[in-house]
Amino acid sequence: MPSAREARAILTEAGELLAAARGLLADDERARAEVAGALSVVRAREARAELAAIPVARLKDVTEGRLRIGVLEQAGYATVLDVLDATPYALQLLPGISARGAAQLHAAAGQIARAAEEVAPIRVDVDLRDAETTALLVALHRLVGAGLELSHAAGAARAAAERLGALLPAARPARGRLARLLAGGTGRRAAREALARIREVLAEARAAGTRTVLAQASVDLLRPPASTIEAWSDFELRPPEYYNLLAEFAALEPDRAAAEGFLPEEISARVQEQPLDDTHLRVSLRGYQSFGARFAVVQRRVILGDEMGLGKTVQAIAAIAHLKARGGTHFLVACPASVLVNWLREIETRSSLAAFRLHGPDRAAALAEWVRLGGVAVTTIDALHRLQVPDALVPAMLVVDEAHYVKNPATRRSQAVAACCRHADRVLFLTGTPMENRVEEFRALVAHLDPDLVQAVRGSDAAAGAQAFRRAVAPVYLRRNQQDVLTELPDLVQVDEWEEFSAADTTAYRAAVAAGNFMAMRRAAYARPETSAKLQRLRELVAEAAGTGLKVVVFSFFRDVLATVGQTLDGPAYGPISGDLSPGRRQQVVDDFGAADGHAVLLAQIQAGGTGLNLQAASVVILCEPQVKPTMESQAVARAHRMGQVRKVQVHRLLAADSVDQRMLEILRTKTRLFDAYARRSDLAEAAPDAVDISEQAIARQIVEEEQRRLTLGRAGVPGDATM
After folding, report:
1. Which residues face 304 on adjacent strands?
2. Domains in the chain, start-ordered, CATH in brackets?
3. Which of 80, 116, 266, 685 could be cross-linked to 50 through a Cys-Cys bond (beta carbons 3.0 to 4.6 Å apart)?
4. Sheet strands (E) in 142-204
5. How far apart, in Å, are the Cα atoms of 649 and each of 437, 491, 596, 619, 664?
6. Span 74-133, pLDDT tens digits
7. Molecular function (GO) terms listed (predicted)?
């Protein structure tokens, strides 16, 4: 045993560490109590609004019809809230209601109120900014400001408090000679062992810098409350962090089955048992996101097919960070060029991992650095075949973003991905559209991951029904939808804006139909800007958004349509974002649009702006025409209506009646239904997978022929000629 002086020094240091740990835990508890208190006020308000809409007759459900509800209705008690706000004595004064009956009625209203509070949705309205929500944001601001480091600090504090709280009493006899004598032989041995273990705890704490971590976290928690302006501004700047905390406090996480993508129980159980190491993360995960990252770790070679806006990128980063903490060194991300910049940003801001850009003139030097140092290499799918990775280097995980781009095994990009898949330890495909036109394309993605499973899927025959299809691919496929897991997401208001062709529109349209020119038919509504019905409605929508300070993004497949829109608007517009813009320039345009003060308009080709960019600054989306692929529109809308959106999103689709627009919607409805059945939720699907085997060319030909027959026009205006 060390000398009494040495023992006292050790115990003093341990006591100070224990006090710091307990102090941080107390500060954290107070901060969380403030949030819980503010949240209860908001929930009570929301519950009261719900109760005001529940008829008093619903009390029968709680009282099993034993009480006289009719008397309440005759006395003017119309809702459950009316009964709750009344006193039992006031209810007792009603004819035919006893004291006991009045108490039971009031208790029943209270029971419904408590249930309403438990399920009351918590949404933050940036346009309302009421006092109750402001108090909640101010309370949350302290925890959001402390960041993920607070979670790590609290974990370290709990561990130190638990260990030292038990060891210090046992080690006290080591403080002095008299105490050692009085402790006896058994007490001295216990003190010696406890002191040795305390030394280990202190050594670990010094190596980890625990005292500094605890001190910094306490400073963050003890900062003065944020002002109203500061709290609201910070919420609009980083809403996901606030909503993540709200999900934790308010139990906003979705139904477990929905959060787990309705996987079979045996797979779900394995994933649930897998811990996720967040040492290298700088962001808190929602429950469903944590599950997605663990699914990738446990199942090793998978497709994460979450709907747009659910954070597939951060789930991939979380899986990589976990593997890094468990000894992985090299990771590779292959993505479209349009999102390469976004991937580099996300890795740098969401984790402490080193990111290397293997694209552009410096890619050779970056590759050498990545090979030497390890980290996350990010390259484009199209450049993957040129990447010369040493054979001895086996990536701990390969991530392929927008993986539906590699569904055709005959392409060079698909073959390059297949070769990388064979060489990587784990593979994670990210795609919100795993099946666009046929189930066979989905199988092509699975073939990259597990060729044996492809045979099993064929054997089960997807035509037998979607549930059989989902069961077959469950080991490699996880998909969640916004409506199932983003309980706080603002409303998405979708409006089909049907317009009548003007005379000039009609002339341009009939000429395009006669020529069999499908693309000209689709943009005929913009051929005469001065009389275009669609443009007139677009200008009205933009003017309405400008009046309320809302940002607008306008999508079209056609650059000339976007040019026409830009020339027609009263003010300047950002963009257009198009395929020929470099990824860096594309991101800069989006950043400038988001940073604009108040109202702004962004123009974007839907095939460029609908993939890989976060446009949640926009709360109004205008689609200039329907798209051949149903998923193209949903991807574009999801760029604005995604996790972190703080306002309701209005989606306006401009459509011309009795035109190519209407024919497209009719034909594509079947495709959308089958995609929903097989890839979204998969409850029913009796149609064969070939039902969605409709190419863009086939759709174009069918629509042209139908319109030529309807208008009795053929090529060059000759009746009856239905050829392209």
Report:
1. 430, 478
2. 1-252 (no CATH), 257-484 (3.40.50.10810), 490-658+694-717 (3.40.50.300)
3. 116
4. none
5. 28, 7, 18, 4, 24
6. 999 999 999 999 999 999 999 988 999 899 999 999 999 988 888 777 878 877 889 999
7. ATP binding; helicase activity; hydrolase activity
